[in-house]
Every structure is written in C-alpha cells, then in structure tokens.
UniProtKB/TrEMBL annotation:
It comes from Macleaya cordata (Five-seeded plume-poppy). Residues 690-701 have a biased composition (Low complexity). The keyword Lipoprotein does not apply. Its EC number is 3.1.26.11. It comes from the Eukaryota. Signal peptide: none annotated. SUPFAM superfamilies: Metallo-hydrolase/oxidoreductase. One of its GO terms (cellular component) is mitochondrion. Belongs to the RNase Z family. This is ribonuclease Z.
Length: 926
C-alpha cells in the first residue's frame, strides 16, 4: 500500500493491477476419505430461481463425506448462505446444460471458494463439451485458471464452435464417477429437428412462425457447414444432459446365528463379511462367504435428473435406447428407479408424450422442479423478503416492493409457469411439485422417500408486520410521519446555498496521493463556501420544476459488495425511464432475480425488453456476472420481433468475456469500450461526426464510406492536435485515464449510442476514470432539456454513479451540479486504512465528494457485507444523503424528501447489531 496521510490516499499498485492479491494461487482439489458404508444420503432441491423463475433450480446430492451439486444458477451462493448449506464441502458441480440459466452462479462461487483460508479451495466442474466456452469466458476476469478444474464430455467442436454430433457415438451413458460411494453417468440429449419428425402434438394447427418460437432454432444446414459430412451440427448450448446416480447395492442383514453356527466369533471377521469379503472360520476349517451369513441384498437406490428444455429435445428423449434398462415396463428393465427429478419446464412436462414417458418408470417418485406457480408462494430469500416487508411498511414510496408475491403477480403468470395440478394432463400418482429444501432420502433405506421437514414454513407479510409492531411499537407513528413528508409539499422547498464559483482545480491530481479531498478540489474561498454549505441546505434544482413521476426512477437492485449476502445483493442499478425505456448501471449476479422481485415476473420481462443500454463500471465479478443472463433473456424475449442489438458499455477486459461467451449463447449485443465514452473521446467523436455530416448528406450512396474514412483520419488528427494542449504535461497527457482513444473502431456504435440516448430522452452518457483497479470508471447521465406546459425551458437532470473508487478529483469534477450522486461507501469512517488499501471509500468520504461537487442529493451504496442490514454512519454528515437498500426505488419527484427519511430508517434497525457477515458467510461455507 502506498504510504499516505491524506484522506484521499489510494493503493497505487492495486489501481495498476500490481498488488499481491492478483498473484495466482495453485488451488488443489480437495481429497476426501470416502465412506463406503454411508449412513446418510439424500438428494435435495436448492430452490434457486423457483420463486422468480430466473434460473434453473440446483440439486444437492449429499453423502457423509462427499457433496455433489447439479447446476449452479445465479443466486445459488446467496441461497446457501441463507440456509447455512456448506458449499466448501462440494466436490463436483455437474451442469445439465452450459448456459447462463444453469451456470450463472459459477464465477462468484469459484471466486468465493478461492478466497477461503490461506490456500483457497477448488472443485471439479463437469458438463457437455460446450463447457470449455464457459471456462474460456470466465478466465477473462477470474485471474487464476488453476481454480477451475473441468471435465467436459460429448461431441467435439470444430473451429467455428459448432459441435459435431456423430449419431453413432455417445448413445451409451458416459460414466463420470464410479467408486465405492456412487456411480454417476451422463446421457446426452440433443434437439431433434430432422425432417418429418413429429415435433408438436397438432402441427397442422400451428403456424410456422409459432413453431419457430416454440422450438430450438433449426440445426445448421449442409451449405452453412461444409465440414459437417455425416454428422449433425449442433450449436453450443444445444446439448442437454440426463444424469443417472446409482448407489451400490445394500447388503442383506447380517445373521449372527448363522455366523456362530459356521464357527465365527464376533470381531473383525463380522465386519469383513458385511463388506462383502470371504473369511476363514475361527473354529472350523471352512471358508465362510458373505452369502452364508447375509440376507438377500437390496439393489442400490437410483436417481435420475432430467433436463429436457424444449419440445425438440423431447423427441430425442422418447427414443433414447440407453434408458430402456431403467423402464419398469421394458423387458430389459432390470434397474428400479426410485426418484426422478425433472428440471424440464412445464411447457414440456405437461405434454401427453412427456406424461406417458414418466409413467414408464413405474412407482418411481417424480419431483417436478421446473418453474411452477406453487413455488412462488414462498420467497427463497426469506431474510431479504422480511427486510423488504418492513421497509415497505415504513415507507412504501421508496420501497414499493412488499417482499412477498401478491395475488395480482400470481394471476398474471402465463401458462409456461402453471402448476401441473392445473394443467390439462394428469400427473403420475407418485408426482410432487418441488419445494425449497425438499429432500428425497436414499439412505438409511428405512427412510427411503420424501422428507418435507426442512421446507421453509409459510410466512405471510401480515406476520412480519405484526412482529415489527411488537418489536418497535413507535414504528406506527414513524410511518405516519413519513407519509406526511409526501402530503406536505411546502416542506420540500429549501433555501438556496452558497455559490461554488471559487472552485480551483490543480493539474493531474491523480498523481498526487498526499492531499485531502478539500485540498485537491477547493481554493481557500471555495473551501469556506463548502464548509458553509454543510450547515445549510441547497435549493431544489430547477431541473425538478414541474417534474412528473413518469420522468425517471432509480431502482437499487443490489447495494452490497464483494459477494451476495442474505440481505444485500451485489451491485446493480436500474434506471427506469418509463415509456422511454431503461438502463442498467452495473449488473452483478442475481440482477434478473432482483428485477423480478421488484417488478414481478412479467414486469421484469418488460423491463428487460425495454433496456436501451447496459453500462459496466469495471471488471470485478460482483459488478458484471449477471450480464450474460440479462442479455440471453432479452435475446429470447425479442426472438422473432424486429429489434437492434443491445448496447453494452464496459471496460475493455469485459469484451473478452462477452466474445468468448457469445460462442456459447447468443447475446445479441454491441460492445463499446468505456474509454470511447469519456469526455475527451466524445469530443473527438462529435468533431468527427460534424465533419462527416458536412461532407456527405445523410442517405447519399457513399455516406457510409465517408464516415468510415473520417472515422480514422479526423480522429487521428484531433488527437494529435490535442496531445500537447496548453497547460498540459506532454509526457503524461496521453497516459491520462481520460485521454481520448481512437474511436474509429466504434464510430458507428457511437452514432448508434447517440441515437439511442436521444430516443431515451438523454443528452449524454459520459464515462469518468476513477481510482480503483485498471480501467475502472464512474458514469454521468444527463437528461435532455424539456419544455413545460407554459413554454418554459427546463434543464435536464444529471445523475452520477461512482462505481468503485477512492475519492478522486475526476469524479468530483464530473459530479458538479449533479441532481443525484450515487456513491460507493464500502467502509465505515473508522476504517480509512482498509478503504485506502482496497481503493474504496468510507461513508464520510463519499458524502464529502458529494458536498464538494455541490450535488443536490447523495445515495450511498456498495456496503461491505460486514454491515448486514444497515451500515455505520454519522448523521451529522447526512443532511443531503440517504443510505441505499436493495429494492429502494427513488423517483426524481421525491428527491426533496429523500434525506428526511433517513432517521426513520435508522429507527427501523435500532435493535440491530453490527455484525461482520463476511465472516459469518465464510464460516457457514467452510
């Protein structure tokens, strides 16, 4: 760490990516001593995604000494933290498909395991051959590739990424694990799109467009893939997997009487016989075999996990010969299946064909773990839902989401999500809907069957509020007083504060690590003015004049740092522009689930459809690992609808991840480097755009060629002319984080961005270099001017988001006159040294940044998980500030009352102890 006495010191090596935390570890796989005589074994539903339907559920296969996870969608880590499931015990993770729905939680999980203890931990990841694309993508932001031990199986891929599926191969189960504890095999399931196949129940009644929407896209043709030859070409992500888990047979009961008659004495020989080994009699000259003293053996339990994602896959499922030995009605049926867990969606499982196929397993217990309406009644994250319900009671204006699904949400669910019990086809008699933490016991054999004892109990919002009123009786009056803040509009007007005209900037302040925030930003007169402002309230900005509730809303989807916790998800901010669309600022894991908790299942789909742009601050996993899931869902929702690729703006390292991931799953996006949206680069772009427009009128045949030519020539010329601008250091100007870059590569995308912003009512989106890690940025959003009903021009609002950063002059300068500053406040004021070491800000520093810039309102976010519910803060600094919470929704029209709510929020958490939940999280995982 760089030695620094000033409050804005920073860890220079960390900012440059050279700190020792980035040194790779060699993480060894865990070696566990197996216990062949397991006393406990069960499969359990880890309900990730079941209430919000954003991911595929996970399944835990539990043994005394081993743990196996099937699928790791977003939110798995948060779910396991909530229910104290120890992920560090996991030995293998199996993926039924390789896509964001089943593997979105892997990056965060791997990073958490790698950070445990001094050595870190690692697991095996198994999946179809497409797994390599996922691993390649993750390597762009997971610095240690050694922590990812993978085994892929199935057809190989060609240079274009297409899988070459030889129908003569992979017809038999692929054995992945076969030891004294369990045998796990994989049966590949591919979509069947061959000519003449009966893909639908009644194809004559369905249009060809509907067929395209309901089924996977057709496989590539011969002409598109000349190297196909006799094989069928599959795209990455097309292959699904059926996993078969077979336990060893259960030996018959030992008969001591028979052993005694054969001359055996109690002791080690009894144990050997029970293990299946023959022994010499103690008193007779004979060999005693296990069959002499053991009763008849019982076949080992068998569990199938079936993921049949589309009706096209169903045709293949019905014809797989390798499953014949598991069917009760087959002449080859020699293996009795005890439990079948169906990960398939209800659109598949409710068909006549699928129901008939299920009946072939006889009396097997079927657990329907696909997306069904019943599972939405109980929130998966009960701790978070409880907090949301309390906040909603106190201040429904800022916390409109009640934390629990209400009837109108459930009534709006489409047929894709309907419970099988309400479907057109009867379920097999031994079929149950999956519920969170539902178990099926495999051993001891006497307990074989379903176990509902761990299923969370129903918790109605009324119970939460009753508990709140009993715990904090004064909350009733507090809720009334909060309501009065909205009813008394006169209280929202404030006096005008002092001018900021005397602010003085020094040159290249990021090179100076020894100055404090006020010293860097203000001269003597400016510093006096800033201090005076701390004791007064600034005027309501003119941009809020006559503003409507349909202008803009800030929805904080995640306000925690590093990794998800019970109460706070990782970073994500939804900018709701209502009829003009929306934007996402950062997109941590679980962003889609949070959108669904805020807007409902259907409302979140609408929000994703309406996205105009996604902006990512830096490459750390807690800020972008939810991105692929959002992009993949948008692509699915808009399939068959005319639309444009979504703009994604982020650090250059992010493009490597997205490029690698797109070989796996279609993301339908355009990428723009944050450096191309800095103020300097945008000025160059605007100059180039004006020059090109003056040379060629829009619509002319050679307009595009002229733009391309100008995109190179003019930009280069402008950069060269500005390199040695007056007052700048020639040796460092080019290296400055905000220096212009060659925007010629993204010239057309920049033009598209300009158009998209205009359609969204925005004047500008500007990325601001900040001090955190290499290529870390904050962002400024400026709304366009508007004209009120009497013809008066009203300036647009200005929103600034810091991303992760130490206090820095670039962000303060960019925040001048901001209507809202959303600033990270990872640590409490007493932890300045830790904040400097990690290049984060304290609460006081974040507020000082907003004060120095003259921001009207400040919202603090990105709190360390050591503050599980509410962070430590000094109210004397919070005159224009509010603490952010997950699901907090701040409408621009409500900004005047924002800081006035803070004391009531503190009352809500008055009995809460500050606990380092990061330790609690790791403790529950280890």
């Amino acid at each position: 760490m760089e030695e620094n006495a000033g409050s804005v010191g920073f860890n220079k090596r960390r900012a440059e990516g050279k700190d020792k935390s980035d040194k790779p570890k060699i993480l060894q796989l865990k070696v566990r001593k197996l216990n062949p005589v397991n006393t406990i074994c069960y499969v359990q539903i880890l309900g990730t995604g079941l209430d919000t339907q954003d991911t595929s559920p996970s399944v835990l296969l539990f043994f005394d000494k081993q743990r196996f996870i099937f699928n790791a969608g977003e939110g798995l880590q948060r779910f396991c933290t909530e229910h104290k499931i120890k992920l560090s015990k996991i030995d293998h993770i199996f993926l039924s498909r390789v896509c964001s729905e089943t593997a979105g939680g892997l990056p965060g999980l791997l990073l958490t395991l790698a950070s445990m203890g001094d050595e870190g931990m690692s697991v095996n990841i198994c999946g179809p051959s497409d797994l390599k694309y996922l691993v390649d993508a993750m390597r762009s932001f997971i610095p240690n590739a050694a922590m990812v031990h993978t085994r892929s199986f199935g057809p190989a891929s060609n240079a274009d990424g297409a899988s070459l599926y030889d129908q003569g191969k992979f017809t038999e189960p692929i054995v992945l694990i076969d030891d004294e504890v369990v045998k796990i095999s994989a049966i590949l399931l591919r979509p069947s799109c061959s000519e003449g196949s009966q893909l639908m129940n009644n194809p004559s009644s369905v249009s060809s467009q509907e067929k395209r929407d309901r089924f996977a896209e057709p496989l590539a043709s011969h002409s598109q893939n000349p190297n196909r030859k006799d094989g069928v070409v599959l795209k990455p992500g097309d292959i699904s997997v059926i996993y078969v888990c077979e336990l060893p047979e259960i030996k018959g009961k030992f008969d001591p009487g028979k052993a005694k008659a054969l001359g055996l004495k109690p002791g080690p020989n009894y144990r050997e016989l029970q293990l299946g080994n023959s022994v010499m009699s103690d008193s007779k000259n004979i060999m005693v075999h296990p069959s002499d003293v053991l009763g008849p053996s019982v076949p080992g339990p068998i569990v199938l996990l079936v993921d049949c994602p589309t009706l096209s896959h169903l045709q293949e499922l019905l014809s797989i010969q390798s499953l014949s030995s598991y069917y009760a009605d087959s002449v080859d049926g020699v293996k009795s299946v005890n439990c079948v867990i169906h990960l398939s969606p209800s659109s598949v499982t409710t068909t006549v064909e699928y129901q008939t196929w299920m009946e072939r397993f006889g009396r097997a217990q079927h657990v329907m773990a696909g997306h069904e309406i019943k599972n939405m009644e109980v929130p998966i994250l009960k701790s978070s839902a409880r907090i949301a319900a309390r906040l909603n009671y106190l201040c429904p204006y800022f916390f409109p989401a009640p934390g629990f699904w209400v009837h109108q949400h459930l009534n709006n669910i489409g047929p894709e999500s309907m419970d099988l019990s309400e479907g057109s086809f009867p379920k097999p008699s031994e079929s149950s809907a999956a519920e969170n933490l539902l178990k099926f016991h495999l051993r001891p054999y006497a307990q074989l069957g379903l176990d509902r004892s761990a299923i969370p109990s129903l918790l109605a919002p009324a119970e939460v509020i009753k508990e709140l009123l009993s715990e904090i009786p004064e909350i009733v009056d507090a809720a009334e007083q909060v309501s009065h803040l909205w009813n008394s509009s006169g209280d929202t007007r404030e006096v005008i504060g002092p001018s900021q005209e005397n602010i003085i900037m020094i040159e290249e302040p990021w090179m100076n690590g020894n100055a404090s925030v006020p010293d860097i930003i203000l001269g003597k007169q400016g510093l006096d003015a800033a201090r005076e402002e701390l004791n007064s309230e600034s005027a309501v900005p003119s941009c809020l004049e006559n503003i409507t509730r349909e202008d803009m809303e800030i929805v904080l989807l995640g306000t925690g740092s590093s990794q998800p916790s019970k109460y706070r998800n990782v970073s994500s901010i939804f900018i709701n522009l209502f009829s003009k669309g929306s934007l996402l600022l950062d997109c941590g894991e679980g962003t889609l689930g949070q959108l669904k908790r805020r807007f409902g299942v259907m409302g979140a789909d609408d929000a994703v459809r309406g996205l105009r742009c996604i902006w990512i601050s830096h490459i750390h996993a807690d800020h972008h690992t939810g991105l692929a899931r959002i992009l993949a869902l948008r692509c699915k929702l808009l399939r068959g609808v005319p639309h444009e690729p979504l703009l994604v703006i982020g650090p250059k390292q992010l493009k490597r991840f997205l490029d690698a991931y797109q070989r796996l799953e279609d993301l339908d996006m355009q990428f723009l480097d944050c450096r191309q949206t800095t103020e300097a680069s945008l000025e160059v772009f605007e100059g180039t755009l004006e020059s090109s427009e003056s040379r060629s009128s829009p619509g002319s045949p050679d307009c595009e060629d002229v733009n391309k030519r100008d995109g190179v020539g003019e930009i280069t010329q402008n950069i060269e002319m500005s390199l040695f601008a007056k007052g700048s250091r020639m040796e460092s100007y080019w290296k400055r984080p905000g220096s212009p870059v060659d925007t010629s590569v993204g010239f057309q995308i920049l033009k598209n961005l300009k158009r998209v912003l205009g359609e969204a009512g925005l004047e500008a989106l500007i990325s601001v270099p900040v001090v955190h890690c290499p290529q870390a940025f904050g962002v400024v959003l400026k709304a366009a001017e508007r004209v009120n009903s009497v013809g008066k021009t009203i300036p647009g609002w200005k929103l600034v988001y810091s991303g992760d950063t130490r206090p820095c002059s670039q962000l303060i300068d960019a925040s001048r006159g901001a209507t809202v500053l959303i600033h990270e406040a990872t640590f409490e004021d007493s932890l300045v040294e830790e904040a400097i070491a990690r290049n984060h800000s304290t609460t006081k520093e974040a507020v000082e940044v907003g004060d120095s810039a003259g921001a009207y309102r400040i919202i603090l976010t990105h709190f360390s998980q050591r503050y599980p519910k509410i962070p430590v803060f000094d109210e004397t600094h919070m005159h224009k500030t509010c603490i952010g919470f997950d699901m907090m929704s701040v409408n621009m029209a409500d900004l005047p009352v924002l800081p006035k709510v803070l004391p009531y929020l503190k009352l809500l958490f008055k009995n809460e102890m500050i606990v380092d939940e990061s330790d609690d999280v790791l403790g529950s995982l280890i």
